[in-house]
Amino acid sequence: MIVNMSDSATAEQIEHIIQRIREAGFQPHVTRGTERTIVAAVGSGGRRHEIEALSVAPGVDNVVAIAQPFKLVSRQTRPHPSVVNVRGVKIGGPEVVVIAGPCSVESREQLLETAHGVKQAGATMLRGGAYKPRTSPYEFQGLGIEALKILREARELTGLPVVTEVMSTEDVDLICEYADMLQVGARNMQNFALLRRLATAKKPILLKRGPSASVKEWLLAAEYLLSGGNDQVALCERGIKTFETGMRNTFDLAAIALAKELSHLPVVADPSHGTGKQSLIGPVSRAAIAVGADAIIVEVHPCPERALSDGPQSLDLAQFERVMRSLSSPLRAVLTPARA
Ligand code: PEP
Ligand code: MN
Is residue 56 domain-shared with residue 167, that is, in the same domain? Predict the structure, then answer.
């Protein structure tokens, strides 16, 4: 349930509603907007009729049910877009953020060359996997802590904040020491133990959509993070499984627009995993930005043919630079919807 306060509600009246929501057996979540305050009553087992009755309490404009199963990620609870701040880089603000880097950190040289190159081309965040979710146990599994140290060095040298994947609750504290944003990979979108643990982490989260998850399931996974206390969450569309065999996945452009419509959370587009093809990264990035993506995340490798993971979808530095130039062409201004 949502209690919409009137624009003239006083601090005492808002506090009273918060108290009453607790008494009714729900958790209150307050969103203070520029015009008015919204107090959401979330949780299960509370007494709904007591919340409904608050419509006549002083300072209350109206009380409405939240139409969707996800509550705190819903636009009903927070009508204005959220901004996720990753060490000063704002995902969800007026600028489209570009996150770039290799699928996996393979060596110090490989990562530093990539980090300097993508920065030069205009990227504002660095990606790189240290713990890799590989389909086969015989494939490269990542350098672990060694990769985390290299990522930290790259951040120190370039100033680019770093995002890297966390696969297990056991690694959360360690990765938080080194990275600026933690990625929940597609295969772990419904790892509820991991989501619950990350809800208490003091770092922003990049939540990838599962390869066969509906938009509703994706938003409910984000709800675990927000309801547990972490509202610094960016969603990431990375393609889903369909009957199509010409691409690694089917990049679901409309899901970006739908997620933005249903939720205030920023959305990141991953055309690398979404298509699996170098040649499609540019066009799909432009399309994603046109439908409202707040950021793109692109795999870049100094020599894709030698990459230990995801070479076929990785751009070399010259290709990445060309894609970057195509994003800042005047067409982008025409295509990009108002980001307010
Ligand atoms: C990755 O980012 O390299 C990765 C493994 O992504 P996903 O979880 O989307 O497959
Ligand atoms: Mn990858």
Answer: no
Which residues are near ligand 1 (CB < 6 Å)?
A: 103, 129, 133, 185-187, 208, 238, 273
Residues 137 and 22 in one domain: no
Number of domains the chain contains: 2
Q: Do 138 and 7 fall within a single domain?
A: no
What's the pLDDT tens digit per position in 156-186? 999 999 999 999 999 999 999 999 999 999 9
Query: Is 78 part of a structural domain of the chain?
Result: no
Extended strands (E) in 148-249: 162-165, 181-184, 205-208, 233-237
pLDDT tens digits along 224-281: 999 999 999 999 999 999 999 999 999 999 999 999 999 999 999 999 999 999 999 9
**Where does residue 268 rank: exposed (0-12), middle (13-18), buried (19+ CB within 10 A)?**
buried
* Atom 2 of ligand 1, residue of closest alpha carbon: 103
With a CB cutoff of 8 Å and minimum separation 6, the contacts of 67 are 74, 76
Report how far ligand 1's centroid is from the alpha carbon of 274 (Å).
Answer: 10
pTM listed for this prediction: 0.95
- Find tokens 């933005």 and name the residue: 260
Helix (H, G, I), strand (E, B) or coil at 280: helix
